[in-house]
Amino acid sequence: MPSEALDHVLEFPGGYTRSVGPVIGRFLSELRDGRLVGVRTAGGRVLVPPVEYDPDGGEPVTEEFVEVGPIGTVQTWSWVPRPLKNHPLDRPFAWALIRPDGADTALLHALDLGVVDEGADPPRFLKTGMRVRPRYRAERTGAIGDIECFVPEVTMINAPTRLEYRLRGGRALDRFLEGISEGRILGHRCGVCGEVIVPMKGLCSRDGVPTTEEVELPDTGTVTTFAVNNLPDPRAPEVPFVSAYVLLDGAGLPMLALVAGIPADQVRMGMRVKAAWRPREEWDRSMANIKWFEPLDEPDVPFDTIKDYV
Fold this sequence. Notes:
By secondary structure, this protein is mostly beta strands. The protein is built from three helices and 16 strands.
């Protein structure tokens, strides 16, 4: 009968001690101090990790050591989706051949891509040519493990940005906001085309002529087109919310506003709406006086009527 296979373990309880020589010894000593060095060959190439003989021709290397990196370039890589217990990292990582800047050869080490779910595919930004740098351990002993791993160079940041500024609107917009502060929506009628422009701008963009004739418009209108938004906005009552172009009754141009008081998936082109004003005591010289537009109990406007305003 065949014998049963047995597991065997070969262990050196006190550790296995060996001499590393002056070339590798210099490399490990520099690692202990947080530096990467290579050795120059007689032909001028810089080998990292350094070895005592040039692998191309077998000649002894020179005694010239060259500091390289610390930044390097990934030459090739292999993804490890499920690390084993003896791997250097406890989450998915890559083995990579990394050529430090100033070196002509590459060294093999672990590449940490951050937190990745076990079994996941490699991140899309992992690729040959990416720039990386070593992450050293806090306590180093003079071994290749003094480099815990390599990590990508920082190439992008997400910086929170907020800009405050004071806007002076000019004569026409100032007059428009004065009307809003009184609960009135004012527009300008063009003397050439006859269209009423709201908010008033002091100019007809179609005919290029100044406008001065004021027209007070009702706060009712028609949705010409709209968009459903799924990102939070402090002005909106909930998410998702609808931003729409509303053609006020009597106006020649639609204005942008929020639409609420109806589920987002029920807003439609041609829907009749009315401004929902904030309480009078909250009014100021701002379009925030109108919270949004709400549906009117009126029939929708046919598309042919509003198609030129979409």
